[in-house]
Amino acid sequence: MYTTMSPIRFYPVGTPGQAWGDAELAQWRARQRRQRSYADEVLAPIEMLHDQFDVESYSEVVYGNERYPLMALRSRQWQAGSPTVLVTGGVHGYETSGVQGALRFAAAHAQAYAGKVNLLIAPCVSPWGYERIQRWNFDALDPNRSFRANSPAQESAALMQLVEPLCGQFAAHIDLHETTDTDESEYRPAVAARDGKPFTPCTIPDGFFLVDDTANPQPEFQNTIIKAVEQVTHIAPADAQGGIIGMPLESYGVIRYAMKELGLCVSITGARYTTTTEVYPDSPRATHEQCTAAQVAAVRAGLGFLLGD
Question: Is residue 16 in a domain?
């Protein structure tokens, strides 16, 4: 006689095998705690950049009585004939070096490209997630799976609206991310629980890697960035299956995703050159400083490639 075993409970919210409803969403929200300040760590540094950029609030995220201005930095010396580049950070709010890397690049290096490149920088796309060190937004949605028409994620819809008037002008988009141990311990189990699906463990790679676009592969662009970042921190090796996070390795430190199909941020500009960086901040071989510096190195290498430097 065969018996059916009950699903193993792998996440503290919801019932295994059943997708969340309003009650489970409320329970998940109750678990989220504000752990840092968007105003202090993002808005204050942006305020210091008014002498270098046109600073704009391109929208506002509103959740209940919480309101977050979404900020962008735009080159003052905007020239119609120059390539336009979008740099984004904090699409996943918990990925700290993406936010801090975008801010550091803006403060310390962006002026070197004045008159050569039109820069549009959105340092922290998901401020509610930034404050709670959370991948999702308030509605338990992943902004980086929500860049599509009629997006249900406020953060994603706002960035798409910012970018839309410039579509067709972008030469490159560099989206700054991290892969962390909590991807495996928290966020992948949470996704499975939310959707009522089984959780299958995966391996977190130790090191930096890039995600290219399956529909628009640009191996020379990716390899240029890998070579630059390798001077700052180590590159993730292939796993036992010859890949990284379940995807085959296309070249050293580079995998590919179907960006448009998955609703990923780098699909929104139509740029020829796009990449998603993935820093590993939990590695015993990397410091917070190295992670932030790696993000800056990736942006600078991408711009250098674009300019033929």
Answer: no
The CA angle 126-306-147, to the nearest 5 degrees, is: 30
Answer whether residue 4 shows pLDDT above 80. Answer: no
In a domain? residue 25: no
110 located within any domain: yes
In this predicted structure, what is the pLDDT of residue 64? 94
Listing DSSP states for 115-130 in one string gives TT-EEEEES-S-HHHH
* Res. 7: pLDDT tops 90: no
| Closest to 120 (Cα-Cα) out of 63, 204, 208, 56 | 56
**Residue whose tokens read 């980086």:** 144
Structural domain that includes position 88: 32-307
pLDDT in tens, 157-189: 999 999 999 999 999 999 999 999 999 999 999
CATH at 173: 3.40.630.10
**Phi and psi, residue 125, nearest 5°:** -70, -30
CB atoms within 10 A of CB 233: 21
Counted domains in the chain: 1
Residue 9 domain-assigned (yes or no): no
Average pLDDT over residues 134-155: 98
Say if residues 306 and 239 touch (Cβ distance below 8 Å).
no
